[in-house]
Design goal:
mainly alpha; 2 domains
């Protein structure tokens, strides 16, 4: 039967936490609810390689992480008729990419508004219809 070394288990558990965007506090709360006996600082120290935990405590930390990961819905690809708030590109864009696009859209919108205002000024009220 294959067994991970304590160090490999720690590194892979830390990687799973980081890759899934979890934080130590939520991991600790779940670990504690599973009857874990280490406090939050000890779990944090363990994950950062500063202390070791018993095999049972390590497995409880891993189990807590795995439970939290399975409860987190993965990102999905949007359909064309999905509500806008479900497929917000701000979460997926590279830094600065959306802000440039948003700025461009805002400038285009302002240009359109300015053009309409100029038309109204030239035609006068009620004459542009």
């Amino acid at each position: 039967m294959f067994q991970h070394t304590a160090e490999e288990q720690r590194r892979r558990t830390l990687h799973a936490i980081q890759a899934s965007g979890l934080d130590v506090q939520s991991v600790w709360v779940r670990y504690f609810s599973l009857s874990g006996s280490a406090d939050e600082f000890e779990v944090d120290a363990y994950l950062n390689g500063l202390i070791s935990l018993t095999p049972l405590e390590r497995d409880l930390v891993s189990h807590a992480v795995n439970e939290l990961i399975t409860e987190t819905p993965p990102p999905t690809a949007p359909y064309s008729n999905d509500p806008a708030e479900l497929n917000d590109p701000a979460e997926l864009s590279a830094p600065g990419e959306l802000s440039d696009a948003a700025a461009s859209a805002d400038l285009n919108h302002r240009d359109d508004q300015d053009g309409r205002e100029d038309d109204l000024k030239e035609d006068g009220p009620g004459q542009g219809d």
